[in-house]
């Protein structure tokens, strides 16, 4: 599925300044806290108010979906590094990393199927109850 389809936004409905705002807000999130631009600085840079920026970032579903698509692209670009770290962890003995890798490639799933055959179908409920009562009586005599 394409990123655009996954995030369901309409780029033609983005308002003036929203593309730049999305880029700056994403950049802000990936910047160390002490070096980040303030929301006021971002609003000034794109020529809008902090209130409008807040509304876009927290209530405008089209803008939020667009911004999430951009973040997804940034994260996708880091995937090779992630896989390298997983393989490094496996080489260092991490069973959790090995499990995660095997699940990712489909060689390990969390589904298990167990088949029990205890011949219950061969006995009626009354016969099973009688056998249970006999076992309980035997256990109490010991």
Summarize the structure.
This protein is an all-alpha fold and 142 residues long. The chain has 8 helices and no strands. The longest helix has 17 residues.
Query: Helical amount among residues, as a percent range?
Result: 55-70%
Distance between the termini: 66 Å
Instruction: Note the quaternary state here.
Output: single chain
Percent range for β-strand residues: under 5%
* Shape call: elongated
Protein structure class:
mainly alpha
Rg of Cα set: 29 Å
What is the succession of H and E elements? HHHHHHHH
Count of helix runs: 8
Biggest beta-sheet profile: none
Mean pLDDT: 88
List unreliable stretches of 5+ residues. Answer: none
Secondary structure: number of strands: 0
Keywords summarizing the entry:
mainly alpha, elongated
Structure, described:
With 142 residues, the protein is mainly α. Helix 2 runs antiparallel to helix 3. It is elongated and about 90 Å long.
List the helices and strands and how they pair.
Blueprint: H1 3-7, H2 18-29, H3 39-46, H4 50-59, H5 61-77, H6 79-91, H7 95-105, H8 125-141
